[in-house]
Design a protein that fits this description.
The chain has helices at 3-50, 55-68, 77-94, 128-136, 139-148, 152-165, 169-177, 180-185, 191-194, 198-207, 227-236, 238-245, 292-307, 327-335, 354-369; strands spanning 211-214, 249-260, 263-273, 278-284, 317-322, 341-348. The protein has 370 residues and is an alpha/beta fold.
């Protein structure tokens, strides 16, 4: 190895260590800030209830904090109100972290921690990885989410996307306005009835989207395309496809061979999801969803669980990826199946969403009338 290559290798190794350390420090610092805001919010919330604090008291608290801690940022009256809402929205999930952070603080021991970390709490509604995502998201993002969404699954959907795709607040606001969760976050599925572990069912619901936009595919003439051509584009751009799926997926192969009764069967795309700790089979279709697709996927999942799945892995999940789907047809097809699966759709980079196509058709009709 030459001196130049040794230097390059050393720089790459040290750079990686620096970046990882910076990330850990930033994550830990953000966790501390969120825990502080949560506890302050809880303290204010309890006093508003018991001592009937109003805006004048919050004004006075904010002003005196600024006076006693010159240069302090983030503790205006409006921000303290945001901390209160942050606490009240998440308290049903995390519980009360600190009965009273001021009472717990030992003035003679400046190093004593009076604030309990959110990450140290156990909750049967959030798994360890979800809490990690929660702690990496900044307070401004959190408040934007709780101000614009109501359901837990919707909030966790956005938190996971921010944590894994590093969204700015502006990007988050854009996707909230575009109702990304309603378009992509509710994949039709049977997870509740087929996955015995409720935690895995919730994770599976957050791991898959209703619609995937494949930015690397440009479809010029649909008549010239089929499943094999789409699969070829996906395999050629597997890194980009995994980014579309989510960072927890690992690619195991395409046309994955299964042998049952001395006959070969092939799964279009097979992945492993680290967070779900299970195999994920994707059956790729160039048509709208048809009920018979469910029977084929059920067969694949049974074979995977018997022949491929390892003893410590959870039941395999199947995703039927189609060009389109109708709600009732999917619902009836999945209702009485016993293997976990969902039905998602995909579109190419140059294809408009369905609602835009409908709008354009209406516009053409309006033009004819005029």
């Amino acid at each position: 190895m030459t001196i130049t290559s040794q230097i390059s290798e050393a720089v790459a190794t040290i750079k990686s260590a620096i970046l990882q350390t910076r990330y850990r420090i930033a994550t830990h610092a953000n966790s501390e800030v969120l825990s502080l805001y949560y506890c302050v919010g809880g303290y204010v919330s309890q006093n508003i209830e018991s001592a009937k604090w109003g805006d004048k008291i919050l004004d006075a608290i904010s002003a005196q904090l600024q006076q006693e801690m010159p240069g302090l940022k983030g503790f205006s009256k409006s921000n303290i109100k945001k901390m209160r809402r942050f606490y009240e929205e998440w308290e049903p999930i995390f519980g009360s972290l600190a009965m009273n952070p001021i009472d717990n603080f030992d003035i003679n021991s400046p190093g004593t921690r009076s604030i309990v970390s959110i990450g140290s709490l156990s909750t049967n509604q959030l798994d360890k990885n979800t809490i990690h995502d929660f702690l990496t998201v900044q307070f401004t993002h959190h408040y934007t989410i709780i101000a614009n969404s109501k359901s837990l699954n919707e909030r966790l959907f956005y938190i996971h996307r921010i944590a894994t795709e590093f969204w700015s607040v502006e990007k988050l606001r854009y996707y909230l306005a575009e109702q990304l969760y309603q378009k992509e976050g509710k994949i039709p599925n049977n997870f509740d009835t087929t996955l015995q572990d409720q935690s895995q069912s919730e994770q599976a619901l957050r791991a898959f989207r209703r619609n995937y936009k494949l930015e690397f595919i440009h479809i010029d003439d649909p008549d010239e395309w089929d499943e094999l051509r789409v699969e070829g584009e996906i395999v050629s751009n597997i890194k980009k496809f995994i980014m579309a799926l989510g960072c927890d997926f690992s690619f195991m192969g395409n046309q994955f061979r299964l042998i049952v009764d001395q006959q070969e069967y092939f799964i279009d795309l097979l992945f492993f999801n680290r967070r779900l700790h299970c195999l994920v089979a994707i059956d790729l279709k160039w048509t709208d969803f048809k009920p018979e697709y469910v029977g084929k996927m059920n067969f694949y999942l049974s074979a995977l669980d018997d022949l491929v799945r390892l003893p410590d892995e959870k039941p395999s999940i199947g995703i039927i990826l189609c060009r389109g789907q109708k709600q009732k047809t999917v619902e009836y097809a999945l209702r009485d199946t016993n293997k976990p699966m969902g039905v998602a759709t995909y579109r190419a980079a140059n294809e408009l969403p369905d609602e835009y196509v409908i709008a354009l058709k209406d516009l053409e009709g309006l033009k004819e009338i005029l």
